[in-house]
Write a structure and sequence with these properties.
By secondary structure, the chain is mainly α. The chain has seven helices and no strands. It is elongated and about 70 Å long.
Length: 138
């Protein structure tokens, strides 16, 4: 990890060469502190995501989720793209603008994908006789 931090600090220093002061030690240490904080935050996010993924039942080959609630079964019937859009909003709490940045599309395109995914989720919930209204979920 120390090698990664040192490498990242010098990449930042190289990119911001004009901002590096004459006596760079304090500046480099502050930069290293932020790099370490970012690495720790990223690791915490990865662990949280893994915990969330372990809590979600895996989809079987038929595209349905076995022995799960109606929402999990309906999500299992959706395409990966639809699930991704829905979970970015529901799990991560992203706005359409933020979701668009994550997926590399405009805010409007993300909003349209979200609308369509919600509609498909509602159909899947109705088809499976789910007890949950899609509007209550997402």
């Amino acid at each position: 990890m120390a090698d990664d931090v040192a490498a990242e600090v010098f990449v930042v220093a190289w990119r911001r060469l004009d901002d590096v002061p004459e006596d760079p030690l304090a500046w480099l240490l502050a930069c290293a502190r932020r790099v370490i904080a970012n690495l720790l935050r990223g690791e915490r996010r990865r662990r949280t995501l893994l915990d969330r993924l372990r809590a979600v039942p895996s989809a079987s080959g038929s595209g349905t989720v076995q022995s799960a609630g109606p929402l999990a079964q309906a999500l299992g019937c959706l395409s990966e793209g639809d699930r991704e859009v829905l979970l970015l909003v529901a799990w991560e709490g992203l706005t359409a603008a933020q979701g668009g940045k994550v997926l590399g599309c405009s805010e409007g395109a993300f909003a349209m994908r979200l609308h369509r995914a919600r509609r498909r989720l509602a159909v899947a919930l109705e088809r499976d006789g789910g007890l949950i209204e899609s509007s209550e979920v997402l």
